[in-house]
Design goal:
By secondary structure, the protein is α+β, with helices and mostly antiparallel strands. It has one domain: Electron Transport, Fmn-binding Protein, Chain A (Pnp Oxidase, Chain A, Roll). Helix content is 18%, strand content 42%. It has helices spanning 7-14, 60-67, 97-102, 106-109; strands spanning 23-28, 34-39, 43-46, 49-54, 70-78, 81-92, 118-130, 136-139. Strands 1, 2, 3, 4, 5, 6, 7 and 8 form an 8-stranded antiparallel beta sheet that branches. The two termini are 13 Å apart. The relative contact order is 0.25.
Length: 142
């Protein structure tokens, strides 16, 4: 099926911070190893994109995606049961800083009061999941 973020997926992603079910982001670090981190600012940016706020402009994620933009994310919640796997390509996009900042939870904003970070946009390649939409697999068209 074509990749188009459904309401169920959007609710799971956009509600993860408040539900205390952080989304986990995986990327390849400078040493070539997988690096995992929770990202409370992750939210739906468009029907084919996720976004997050990278608080540290010199952080590992920002450096890593300059070398290898491929990332993976997982969202999991037991009530209602939702398990989502995302793959995509991350990029820094300063033109989206205001939009992304305006869409992250206040608790995440409080962790970067001087707004030193920036927008990270993830152009999704796949979404695989199970839960309210049953089992599904979506792939972006080239």
């Amino acid at each position: 099926m074509p990749l188009e973020i459904t309401d169920h997926v959007a609710q799971a992603v956009n509600g993860a911070y408040d539900a205390r079910h952080p989304i986990v982001l995986g990327y390849v670090n400078a040493e070539g190893y997988p690096s995992l981190s929770t990202r409370g600012s992750t939210h739906v940016h468009s029907p084919q994109q996720l976004a997050l706020w990278g608080r540290n402009p010199d952080g590992g994620l920002q450096k890593a995606i300059a070398e290898n933009a491929k990332v993976g994310l997982i969202a999991f919640n037991t009530d209602p049961f939702t398990l989502l796997f995302f793959t995509g390509r991350a990029r820094l996009d300063p033109s989206q800083n205001d939009t992304v900042w305006d869409n992250i939870p206040q608790g995440e904003r409080d962790l970067d009061p001087e707004r030193k970070g920036g927008a990270v946009i993830i152009d999704l390649d796949t979404i695989k999941g199970l839960g309210g939409d049953g089992n599904f697999f979506m792939m972006a068209r080239d």
